[in-house]
Amino acid sequence: MLRDVLSRFSRPLSRMLLRTVSFNDPWQRFPNDVPLALYGKGAQRDFSWYFEGESRVPVSGIEEMLAWLRGCAYVRDMELFHDVDFWQHPLTFEQLRRGDCEDFALWSWRKLVEMGHDAEFVAGRCAARGLHGPGHAWVLLRGPDGVSLLDPVLRNGCDGLRPLDDVRHAYVPEVSVDARLNRYAYAGFYLIRRSGDEAEPPAEAASETPTVLAPSRS
Length: 218
Hints:
Blueprint: H1 2-8, H2 11-20, E1 29-31, H3 62-69, E2 73-74, H4 77-81, H5 90-96, E3 98-99, H6 101-114, E4 118-126, E5 135-143, E6 146-150, E7 161-163, H7 164-167, E8 171-177, E9 183-186, H8 187-194
Parallel strand pairs: 2-3
Antiparallel strand pairs: 1-9, 4-5, 4-8, 5-6, 6-7, 8-9
Helix pairs in contact: 5-6
């Protein structure tokens, strides 16, 4: 019932809902026709656009995909494109092999979908400062063994798929799109708006290399 309400609410009702509904987990996901603008300033195209054209990087599995990504360089949008937030087409990323977190994540998302995986592109925040962390983007992979998280820009030895339960503390999801191009809002989105923190929109400030996202070790 709550999912149906959230997928239909008007802006006034949205504001009322933010004041009255209690979200216990930022990872609660709700089907929602999320406007592209809420994914970040660089989200200028419908998500189907990122699947256009033929990839020139054949990969037969996730490990091969990760090996190719390790040869790519993390570069801020301002340095690469003189723009605060620019989302590359995956085929452009294949040519440049440089980009920021959205570029890495969009390419990985497309590849995982092409391999037949139930993959989800997510825009949200690093959780180094809780709900107030910098914008970031990553990929979720849903499978028979549960949900895993792929943060393809990590270069600290922890790259690869990790169980979501191991790293959920390090991320705050806001909005996403799945393999069928269905869009979602996460409770993290509503919690951030409820807190009044809209200074760093999803994925806009994702130019920080997120080394803080390594899972904690006790």
